[in-house]
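hey can u check if this looks right to u? its 139 residues, i copy pasted from the old doc so theres a chance i mangled smth
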Amino acid sequence: MGPELWIALSGVMLILEAITVGLTCIWLAVGAFAAFIVSFVTGNIYVQFAVFAAVSVISFASLRPFLKKFMPVKNSTNNTSRLIGQKAVVTEKITDLGGRVKVGDIFWLAESSDGNDIETDTMVKITDAKSNKLIVEKI
């Protein structure tokens, strides 16, 4: 491959990286750029490809952990996690098999944080959320 193909591949990878913004293609762009430089030294495609592969893998393995520290963390919020810290009323006795609480106008599956039963009409505080189930404790 000629230098123009390696630099084009590097450019395409940089464009894809800019679109995805997730440290997905930057490693291939670095490897392609290294192969671009090597292509001026040797016309051997096997050497160029070996440099491309090696530099891509090395840059991925060495730089990704460092760069991930600077990437924004995406916090996943769902309907249950936003309820943590709120109060609820037990509408169906909470036992080791579970129960139900009411938060606002919505009924949720619930379980006790300490494993103890909680009687109906008891006020509880939501301490955690697992999928569609709230983890509660007596107030």
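The chain has two domains: 3-68, 81-138.
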